[in-house]
Amino acid sequence: MKILTREFYSRHSWEVARDILGKILVHESPDGVTSGKIVEVEAYDGTIDKASHAYNNLRTNRTEIQFGPAGFTYIYLIYGMHCCFNVVADEIEAPGAVLIRALEPVDGLELMCARRGLKNLSHKSMIELCNGPGKLCSAMGINTNFYGSDLVNGPLYIAEDTWGQDTIEVAATPRIGIDHAGEDKHLLWRFIIANSPYISRMKFSKDYLSSSTDK
DNA sequence: GTGAAGATTAACT
DNA sequence: GTTAATCTTCACA
Fold this sequence. Notes:
This protein is α+β, with helices and mostly antiparallel strands. It has five helices and ten strands. Strands 1, 2, 3, 4, 5, 6, 7, 8, 9 and 10 form a ten-stranded antiparallel beta sheet that branches. Helix 3 packs across helix 5. The longest helix has 8 residues, at 13-20. It binds a DNA duplex through strand 4, strand 5, strand 6 and helix 5.
């Protein structure tokens, strides 16, 4: 396992989003280690993207971290009850972020279940453990206290599995839950591993299938 | 200071 | 398919 470098994150958010598919998100917490393969992400670019919290370079207390160096976490509370976990992308002064929307659980399944308040680990519950941005934060033990933590040096990090190099089929689709973003809601900035059962929304047009890429 | 909306989820009908 | 839960953030006064 090789931890992703600052350079990996210091690119346009949609490049980081596309390339982060198939990587492993790891949290080494006092309660134990949990990890999962990233199977669904979305890119946000504050300079041009109406769906971004930092649209029009809007610099507030909340978005401040996006204007710093890449590879740090951007985390916020949504609907008063769920956390969303993002990775800061792009260069300093260029606000970009990648929302991690779903994981395929890899390690620490029992701990994930406990954090999610699930009793038994059926096949169904395994799929539903991390198939949504709020769910994966809960399962991984991520909360707003992790805002601004460094993914290059920390108990929370993303690594590349240097072992088996599977080929993954990537699809680029419109993003979820951003109808307020005007014409930018049509941008194909949601990237998924097309044949994964662990993504949050299974339905997507075959038109969105792009070429297979190496992990 | 006030108010409206939200990158969601689970539990309903 | 519809709706409640729940509270931070941001725009505006």
